[in-house]
Amino acid sequence: MIDWQAYLWSLLAILVLGLLFWLVSLSKRDVSVVDSAWSLLFLSGFAAYIAASPAPGTRTVLIATLVTVWALRLSAYITWRNWGEGEDRRYRAMRAKHQPGFAVKSLYLVFGLQGLLAWVIALPLVVAVAGTRPLGLLDVAGIAVWALGMIFETVADLQLARFKANPENHGRVMDQGLWRYSRHPNYFGECCIWWGFYLIALAAGGWWTLLSPVLMTFLLLRVSGVTLLERDIGERRPAYREYVQRTSAFLPRPPRQPSGLLSRPGAQS
Fold first, then answer.
1. Cβ of 198: how many Cβ atoms within 10 Å?
2. Crossing angle (nearest 10°) for helices 211-218 and 123-130
3. SS3 assignment for 138-184
4. Cβ atoms 203, 139 nearer than 8 A
5. pLDDT recorded at residue 236
6. Distance (Å, rounded) from C-alpha 245 to C-alpha 21?
7. Average pLDDT of 147-154?
8. What is the rounded distance in angstroms from the CA atom of residue 263 to the CA atom of residue 256?
9. Residue 171: what pLDDT?
10. Partner residues linked to 172 by β-bridges
11. What is the spatial distance between Cα 218 and Cα 208, in angstroms, rounded to a whole number?
12. What is the structure's pLDDT at 259?
C-alpha cells in the first residue's frame, strides 16, 4: 500500500528541485532549463519516496533502475541539445504573453506546474514500489513495453541529432529512419515508457494509477507535444505539409501516398 506521508515528501523534493532550476533560469534568463529538469523531477521525487518509505516493496530495484536510466538519459540529451541555443521559442512566446513580471510568474506557471504534473504522473512508480506482490508476467510485459519505448526514444533522438549535424540537411525535413514512419517517434517512445511503468504498477495492484499514462499521452499529443510543435510549422516550412500528408503523427506505420502530390524522398523545406 502506498505510504502517503512518503508521497508528500516526494512532492517536497520535486518542488525543491524545481525551485533550484528556477533560480538557474533567472541567472540565465532562460526558462528552457525546465526541459532538462523535467525527468529529474521524477527521479528526485522517487528517491525521496524511497528514502521516506519504511518498507519498500519487491519492485524497488526494478523501478529504481528503469526510472534512473530513463531520467538521466533524457535530461542529458535535452541539456546537450539545448546547450548554447538560447530560450526556446515556446517559452519566449510565454514570456511575452505574461509580462510584466514573467521572471516571478515562471516560478508557478512553468516550474511549479511541471512539478505538480510530475508528482501526479509519478504515481505508478511509487505504487509499484509500495506493492508486495511477487513479480509476474505483467512485470515482464511492463519491462518489454518500457524497453520498446526507450529504444524508440533513444534511436529517434540520435537519428535527429545526426541529421541536424550534417550541413547538407539544413532546411530539409527529417523523414529518415524512424522519422519515416512517425513524425514524432521520440514522443511515441516516451508514451510507451509510461505505459510500461503502468503495467508494472498494475502488477503490484495499482490499477487505479491509469490516470498517469493517460495524462502523459494527452500531454504528448495535445498539449506540450505534437499539437504545440506543429501549430505553425506548416507555415514556416511548407514542405512539412507534404510530410504531414504521408506520415503518421504518432503511431509508427508505413508512409502513405499523399493525395494530389507526388511522393518523393528527402522532402525539403
1. 28
2. 160
3. HHHHHHHHHHHHHHHHHHHHHHHHHHHHCHHHCCECCCCHHHHCCCC
4. yes
5. 63
6. 39
7. 98
8. 9
9. 80
10. 268
11. 17
12. 58
